[in-house]
Every structure is written in C-alpha cells, then in structure tokens.
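Assemble and predict.
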Amino acid sequence: MLGPPAARLDLDAAPPSNPLRTRRPAAGLAVSGAWLPAVLAIVGWWALPIGRPNRPFLTLEPELYAVAIGHPLLWLALFAAVAALALSFLPIATARRGDLVLVAGVVGLASVVAWFMLSTIPFGVGALLVLAGLVMLLGNALSESGRVQGDAFIASSILFVSLFVLLFIIYPLFTVLRSSIYIDGRFDFSVFLRTMRHPLFFMLGNERSAVDEVALTLRWGLAGLVGFGAFALWRRARWTAILTRAVLGGALGLVVGVLLYGNGALPTSLLLVSIVAPTATMLGLAFALLGQRARFGAVRRSLDVISILPIITPPFVLAFAMIFLLGRRGLITYNLLDMSSGWIFGLPGVAIAQILAFTPIAYLLLRGSLSSLNPALEEAAQTLGAGPWVTMRTITWPLVRPGLAAAFLLSMIESLADFGNPIILGGNRKYMATEVYLSLTGRFNPNEAAVYGAVLLLMVLGAFFLQRWWLGGGSFVTVTGKPTSGALAPIPRGLEIGLTVVLFVWTVFVAALYLSIVVGSFAQLWGVNYTFTLKHYQDFFSGAGWAVLLFTARVAAVSAVPAMLLGFLVAYLVSRQRFWGRRFVEFGSLLSFATPGTVMGVAYIFAFNTGPVLLTASATIIVIALVFRNMPVAIRAAVAGLAQIDPSLEEASTMLRAKSLTTMRRVLFPLLINTLVTGLIFAFVTAMTAVSQVIFLVSPGNQFATVLLLGWVDQGQLGRAAAMGTILIVSLLLVIVVVLQLARMLGARMVGVRT
Amino acid sequence: MKRFAVLLIAASALFLGQAQAQRVNLLCSPDLAWCEALGPAFKEATGFDLEFQRLSSNDGLARLRAEAANPIFDAWFGGTGDPHLIAFREGLTEFYEPTVWDEIIQDLKDQVGGTYIPLYAGALGFVVNEGVLDGKPMPQSWRDLTDPMYKGLIAMPDPNSSGTAYTIIATLVQIFGEEEAFEILAGLHQNIAQYTSSGSAPGQLAGRGEVAIAIQFMHDGVKFAAQGFPLVSYAPVEGTGYEIGGLSLIANSPNRDAAIAFIEWALTPEAQVLAGELGDSYQIQSNMNTPAHPLAPDFAAINLINYDFNTFGTPEVKERLVGRWTNEIFPTPR
Amino acid sequence: MISGLEPATVELRGLVKRFGKDVFAVNDVDLHIARGELLTLLGPSGCGKTTALRLIAGLERPTAGQILLDDEDVARLPAYLRDVTMVFQSYALFPHMNVFENVAYGLRVARRPKEEIGARVEEALAMVGLEGLAHRTPSQLSGGQQQRVALARALVIRPRVLLFDEPLSNLDAKLRKRVREDIRELQQRLGITSVYVTHDQEEALAISDRVVVMREGVIEQIGSPHELYTRPASRFVADFIGSANFLPGRYDGQQIDLLGYRWAHEQDVAAGPVTVMVRPEAVEFARDDEPAIDAKVVSAAYLGAATEYLFDVAGTELFATMSGGGMSAAHKGDRVRLRLKPAAVSLLPAD
C-alpha cells in the first residue's frame, strides 16, 4: 500500500489558501517579465550615443551625443521601450499583453538597428544595453504571447544565438565573399579573374617548362577513361554503366593530372589534402583499433598521450623541430643517415607535419565511432564461422565507414586550413591558407585575399556537403554514438604486430621531435651550438614573452567560458527545442567550424573595422573570434552529453514549475559537469594555441603568444621560440591533466556514483 | 532572466571602467628586439607610454590600409621605405618635418624627399655559411650566383610576399638593365633552394646550414652572425642596392601629440644607438651624429648604386616587375 | 495532510496539434474533465493521447484551440505557470539528488522557507509510505519505490491537475496491479483532478472514472468503463476494449435477429441491418428446449478456469470464452446449439 489510510490526511480541515499560488486567481502573470528588459533598454538609451570613432564601449563624446539625441529613430526606440514598460503592468491576459509588448519590441529594435545602419557610428555600451534589453524584451514577449514554445529565457536565447550567428559568423563571411567581387562600391570581377588566372593560384600549361603539362594531363584523363571503361567492360557491365564509369574515370584521370602537373596554390593544396587526409585517416583507424583492442596496456597508454599532443602543441614549433631532425643538417638525415638535401621544404615536409598533427584527431574521432560499435555484431559474425580477418572486412569495416568519412573530412578541413606548417615548411610551393595571409600582408591586396578566402571557403563547404550527401542527411550537431560494452573481436595477430610497429616508430619520432624542442630551448643556438644555457628562459621572462603569455592565457580563459556556455546553450536549443531558425543556427556553427582560420581572420577585419560593430584593435575582437571558433567543439561535446540525459528529467523539472534557466542550473549542469569542464578546457587550450584566426586581429597591447612565436621564428630567435614552446606544452599538459582529473572527481560527486 | 539582466549591467559597467592614459601606439617593423628596447627608453625620456605591434613593413601597410577609416596606430617605426612611400601617397601617413631634420644624412633625405623620414639605411648583400659550400668558392658577384655549382644552395625571399625580394629585383634591374637582370634572375632561379616568405629568413636558413648562400640585407646577416651562426656578410662587386628605413606619422592618428614626441625622440642619437646596443640591429642610422655600431656594415666600403626610389618605389613599377618575375621566372621548372 | 489542494476542472476546446505540415497528432478535441475526476486517455500508440497530455502540461504548444483550467485559458501559458504537474513513464527522478532533494525540488524552485520544505517533504514521503528512505539516491530504490517518489514529488507542490504519462509501464506485471490500485486510492482520497494516459485497456478500466478512447488524433468515445465495455460506439472501441465478435444481423427497434435467432434488445439504433457485437463471454450453450443458434466447434482450448471455443456459425467465426469448464464440454467437430447473454451484446451500425 502506498500509505496507511486517511489518518494522515486532513482533508476535512478547511483548505488554507495555497501559499505556492500567489498569482491566483488570474492565470498567467500579473506583471509581464518584459518590464526589466524594458528598464534596461531605457537606462541604456540615456547612454546610447556612447562610442568613439576608434574605440567601442567607451567614454561620452559630446558631438556624437548631440547627433544621436536629435534623431527621431532613437526617440521612437525610447518610446517603444517606455510603451513596453507600461504595457508590462497592464492588467490584461498574459498572451494578449505579450502580443502588444512584441509589437513595441519589434518597433524599438528595428528603429535602433536602422539608426546604426544609417549613422554607421560604432556603438558603445549604451547601445549594447539598449539592444540587449530590446532583444530580451522580445524574448519575453515571444514566450508570454505563446508564440515560442518555452519560457522567456529560451526565447531570448534563441534570439541572441541567432543574432550572434548572424553577426559573428554569417556576416563576416559574407563580407569576404562580397569583397572578392565588389570593389570600391561596384561589382568588379577583374581582381577575381586575375587571381584565378594567376600562376600563384593555378597554372597548368606552363610555357617555360620542357614538358607540356596540358598534354600530360590529357593523357592521364585518357588513361582514366580507357582504364575504367575497359574494367567495366571486363566486368560485363551494361553499356550505360560502362559509359558512366569511363567518363568518371576520365574525370578522375584529369584531376590526377592537374594535381600532378599543375602549379599554384589550388592544385598544391588539393594534392596535399589528397595525400594527408587518407593517410591520417588510415593511421587514425589503425591507432584506434590498437587503442581499443590492443593486447598490451602500454600501447593503449601511449596512444592516450599521443592523442593529446597536437592539441597542446603551439603551431610552428613542431615544424621547426622537424627541420632540425630532417633538414639538410638535420640530426636524423645528416648526422645519422649522412644525407644532405633540403627535401623537407615543400610538399613532403608539410605533408609529414600535417599527418603528425591530424592523425591523432582522426584517431580520437574513430576511437569514438569504434567504441559505439555493437560488439554483439562481431560476436554474431564469429559464431557464424567468420575468422578475425573476415569479421574485420565484412562487419567492422562497413560499420566504421561513416566514422571514417567524418575523420577524412576533418583531416581534409584541417589540412586545407593549416597555416603554421606551410608557412615554415612550405618551400617554393603555394598553399591556399597561407596565400590568404600573404596576399593581404605581402601583396597588400585585400580583394585578392578575399578571392583566396572565398575559394577556400567554398572548397571546405563543398567537401562538407559532399560528405553529407554521400552519407545521407542527418544533423551536423546531433550525430552521436553511445558507447556499448561487450567483448570485442581481437585484431588479427599479423595486423596487430604491423600496426604496433608503425605506432612504435611513430612514438619514437614524435618523442624525438618534442625532445628536440626542449633541447633547443636550453641550447645556446639551436642547430649550431648546443652548449647548455638558461639564456632563452631568462630572455623569455624578462622580455615581452612572459607578459604576452599571461595576456594570451587571460584572453584564452575569458574566451573559453563564453565558448563553452554558448556551445552548451546552442546544443541545448538545437537538441531540445524546436524553433524556427534551428537549421540556421546549426548551419552557422557548421560554418564557423569549417571555415579556415585565416579566412575568418580576414573576414573579421573586413567586417568589424568600420560601422556600428567596431571591434578591431581591441582584445574584445580576439575574444569574440576565439569564442565562435571554439564554440562548435563545445556544441558537439554538449550534444553528446545531452544525448545521455533523458529529456523527461528536464520536463519533470519544468512540471515542478522550474523555469528553463533553473532547470539548466539545477539539473543539466550538475549532470553534465564533466562534459562542460572538458569542453571548457579544450576551448581554453585550443585558444592558447590558435594562430590563423588571430594573426590579423592582434594589436598593440593585445599580443598573442602564437603570433609572437611566429615573429620570433621569423627573426631567428629560435631559442626563445623553443622556450615558449616548451613552457606552453608543459603548462597546457598540466592544465589538461589536473583539471580533467578534478572534473572527473567533481562529476563523480555530483552525480553521486555510490554503489 | 532577471539575474541575467543584472549580470549584463554589471558586465557593461566593467567595460566602462576601461579608461586609458595617453600613449603611443607604435607600428614597429624592424627587429623585435629593437622594438622591445624602444618602450622603456622612450618612457624614461618623455614620460609617455608606448605599446607596439611588430609587423613586417608589408603587413604594416596592409594593416594601415585595413584600418584607414579608424586608425589605431600613431606612428610607424622602421621597415623598408617603399611601403612608407606608398602609405604616404595613399594618404595613410603624413609627412612631419622633425626639428632634427638638419641632422639627417643628406643623401637619404634627397632620395625620399618630403614623404617619410629616413630612419636608417641598410645594403643588400650575400650572407654565406662557408661550411655548407663544401669547398666551393664563395660567390663574389651577382653573376656568380647563376653558376650551376650552387644548385640548391641559395635562398632568397619571395618577391610575392617580401619587400626585400623586390629590392633585389629592382637593384638587378638598375645595375644590369631589365632584360639582363631577368636573365640573371632566371639563372639564379635554377640554383634557389627556397624562396622564403619573409625577408630575413634566408639568412637563418644559411645559418642553420639548410643553404649556403642567402641573399638579403647585410645587417640581418650581421645580426645572425652576432647570435652565433657561422655566417659572413658582404656586398657583391657589381654594386648593390639598399633600403631606407622609414619613420612616419599616421594620418588622423588618435594620439598625435604623443606620436610627434616619439618621432622627435626616435631621431636623436641617444635613441638611435639603441638599435645596435639593445636591438640586434646593425643598420646605418639616419642621424649623422649617431655613432656607427662596430658590427654595422661600413657603407664607405660598399659599392652602393644610386638607387632610384622614386621610380622603383611606385606600385606600378613594382607590380610590373614582380608580375614579370611571377609569370616568367617563378614557373620555370628546376 | 496534503493541505491546500484546490483541484481544478479541465476543459479542452477544439484542441489541435499539428507536427510538420500535415501530421495531426491531436485533431479538434473537445473534452471536459470534472473536478476530482480521474480521466484516462486510452488508445494505441500514435493515437495522440500522450500529445494531448503534453498539451495540457504545457510541454507542447497547441496549433489551435483552448485549454481551460477552471474556465481560464492557459493554452498559451508556459508550463511553469499552469499549476499542473506530471508523473513520467520513466519517473524522471534526478539521479544527482537523493529522495529528499528530489521531492523538495519543486519547493526549492519556489523558494519556500527551509522549515516548510522539510515538513512538507516529510509529509509527502509519509503519504506514499517512504518514510526513512529520504537519504537514498534513486538508483538505490526499487522500481515501485521510485514510482512513489515521483508521485510524492508531484503532489508536494499541490498541483491543481495531476497528469500521468503511462506511469506503470516500467513495472513488472504483478507490481503494476498493486501500484495502480494505490494510485487510484490516493487520487480518490485527495480528490485531485487527474488525467491518466495508458495504452493498457485493463489498466484504464480498473482505474478511471471515465475513459476517453482516442484514435488518430480524434476522440472515438468517452464514457465510464462500463459504458465503453457494454455499449462501444464503434468497432474500434469494441475491439480495443476487451475482445469482440462482429456478426451481421437485423434490428427492428425491439428485437435483434441474428441468423434467425431473435431476442429483445433495447438500444438507440436505427432499425435495419446492423452489426451485432458479441463479447466472448456472452456465448453459452443453450438448453435443448430454447431457441438457439446452430454452430460447429472449430477448436476448443481448456484453460482451467475457462474454456475458449472457436465456433463456426453459418460460415462466420465466433469466438467464445465459457467459464466453469467441464459442465457440457464440447469437442472439435461437435455440432452445438448456442445462446447469447443479452447484456453482453451490443449493436453497431452495419458495415
């Protein structure tokens, strides 16, 4: 029985008034929640014209003040806010009042936005208050009028997130695309066409070479045509199939020919991608198999370390270490192998460096997709008489294919976007990501930079949509796998031995690279004079290095928190709420994830140097760039975390009259603390080692460690660079290990894992 | 929601508190060490704060252009003269005649006219790591560099990304005439191991033994040698070109007074000696009263050509020459 | 001593919920739920019963229509303003809180004073018989105990309407029966207006004051369990609640004629051809001297307490359950005479 009968129940007593229901008898709210945002907007209005030609968020400027106050649009905004405030207290039905407030909010927001578009005066803190107040007011109104499912917080969040995506992702990229064809106020395709035909971008028929590249390429195309056609013929396909195969083969042959004989950034980057992406993916798969199923624990532990390394390694440093190991006077090539060749400069060096950097990323992704395989499938195959090889070929391989596609795509994007390795090891070849930088800084041509950026952006997006088309739909952020448990089929012994050897060589090489960085930081002159010295560390701490490192850490920390919170919020909205514009928010986060850093950096310069959103030369722009750069990773983590939580927990909280913010704080945060802290740390660490997206955004007093590092490398201050590299690697490693351990303990306590 | 609003107000208050004192925002293009040495000395001399951003002269010009509507820099210190000249012609900088104008070396003033203030001069040359030559003779002239025995042993900057490289092309054109210059460049191309994106990088490659010969400014070679790299720097016999480092006042700068104070100070001998003493920079300084650093290349001993900055500093000429190089030399297979 | 409960009436007017372009989960539903009543929404999966419940809860927003609590339209109000609460199928106990914290959650959200929270949580736990388990975590409780925590957690905030979303489906069959009795007993004791969703017709009949049978987003029939069983409005309802045979017959306003077998029947159905719904337990063997239907035994299965027969009646199958077993057992192939208990027969419009 539930409880002994009525003795405890005192239903006969007159029911006292219910203290919980203070808002009775009228259903709904006596006062609209919009009143507070309205006040915010009104307060902000009095400070609205704050702004200075060269600094946002600052000081009162009398002339501007005069300009602004006189404008009817701003009076309209104030009127709307006051109206909303008055309406908030009007004793009418909540939904009806919501509709009225909504109208006021739309009018207010539209007039403020219109004023800033017209005046192009950079907005300051007052405008920020007005805008935030009006958006929150709209959120309240949307929720109370019942036009958006969810409470005011959800509605406001949807608005804010959409606004952010629009302002900080879509708009900057739009300016890049526009700048490539819209010059000095009119459409002008000359720069676009010139760049497209420029030898630095793409050239196939080189009159100066002894060979005829066009003919060679055509020969490849012909070979592909004939080869594929003949193969199809041999397989006795239907004639339409033979034709399609032959055409496809021909196209493939042409592409191969272009990649092999073409000159310029486009074919080089594509060739690089077609070397790096498959290699990194296959190595990642090999390591993932080892990591999951290796018979020796040591193998798995070494993989744990390897998978963290690329995340904590600052750019340039590894490329440099490679020169010292593999260059003309490299320790391995010269001292060990007695070679003397500069082969490392150019495609081979960049490819090796990228494979080193991206294999662990592919590994992590594939590890996840392997661990979500249901072992029962492999067991079933084995009970049906399949040996390890057959099981692997017929069961494991087809099931990891989506994971492979994802890893392939990611390595592809990373390879295309990579800035640090080509700039150090690039040799005489050109690369898309560095050309964006060099065309802006070396050739002072922003429009050309925009062309490179636009092409690069389209390439990455093309790859993305190709993959989605191939794997078939599905949402970018909501794809997750749940780990399952069970006995996994062991790897075939021969394969395992082979893979272990590969891993061993890999580990030794990587260890040598990292060791050489440490050695370099203590050597008098890296590569020439290996006398022990602390000079570089002294220089580092007494010179600009230490201060910049601290500043970088501060900026990274400041950016990590909003990146994580925003990522969590987006993940929550996208996976738990249905709202108009959801696909848009998803698409935005995909864009900011896929866009190469240099392109985003250029885009920010274009977008935020003039007009209402003036941000250049402030720490704010670096923070914002990093926030939106790292947000997608946080989104993925949070989505995966949310997928493990039964949505009815949140609904239960709602049913107990908690608003969504309370639900997040009291239910989701404690349950996701582990995921969130992990996301925070990774946002911090990736911000610390970011370079391509901030290189255009640094300014006096707002220096970034990685950019300084590039300066030192450029100036030959290799000892100092190595010292900074060592300090960064060691401290970031410490941060990761310590904080993740703390998070694990904290998470265990919060969730109360007591059995 | 309520808390969120309160938080927002608090956060905006934080931004409000961010007032700042008068200071110079310096766009600094020479060696980082030199840039770092400026701040403390300037503060001591004038009391003004100085924040700098190190950007190569090309990057610097790009930044000035990007920020033309809202300049954040006040003065532009150092870096090769061409971008300074372009910036002046585009109205990004303005000419300011310092009180010490009379003390500036006359030849330098003659070359640049009233466009930017000469800050230093540095000559092109060869920076050689003899150990990597494996007994081959050291090249003495521009023509020597085309000798096939140096194949894969030479590095020079990439004209498409480095102003130094353009100075090399312009120098060759001025010594040999355009056609012959491009023949030399074509021969040189066969021997080049790497075109670097930055102007000072070739010397590093040579220092570390990746190549034997670097073509770049000699004072950078001297710097690398001072750091301990086994390098010697010297000028080719046919004569060589040079750069004039510039100093410019940014137009519409936010802190104009401080910027002028900085320019006045930067041209004094006391400030200019910092280059060699603290800044690892061994160019000839523009104030004739500044004592030459013992390591600095001796201009008197170098066969300097009469470099025509007015012709070769224009974007049109530059674009044409670099374009010709990119179309004719760069794609030639090696 | 859950004091201060003020149960409300619930009324749905023209309620519509559309997903996407043309999926109508709830299509124009009108419904009145009396104060203190337990009303069950019953139907197969996908019939819209859960959506209707979530609309009342405020977890979904209606496409059109009104939801009235005590004559106030709350359709556009967010869930947390509705004074409605819900017990979930999965219980949805917060895994990071112990029993006390779970039950106290709603009170803490409402920022009640500490002493009040303590007292009311204790009271609620006592009411569901979970005294002394306040400091266990949900994972340390049995399924039935978790269910009671969920109930206590819902009741402690004194909702005006209590919603149940298939609360028993995670329990095993035996426990299910006991817990449903407990829920009913508690509901009647507190007199709280409740809406209960289930797909289990037995559960619905056992627990409800009234049952709403839903199908494809619309209400098929509303009635007391007895009404639904004895006078189903459609074949769907008859089939969904219990099992039924459907035979073609005629009705002249006073008598039913089924294959020549006639008996008096009073029902508000138009005269003419009709479908006669015959519950399996309505079939009996007839004595030799009374009018009867001739049938052949197709199969017979002895189940102890009852025997299940499948008869062939003039080419139509008739399924029957007869209690008492042995008396006049028939065997496969036997020719038998059958009669029908009039009370377990109802008429439907002819197909």
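Residues 21 and 242 of chain B are 39 Å apart (CA to CA).
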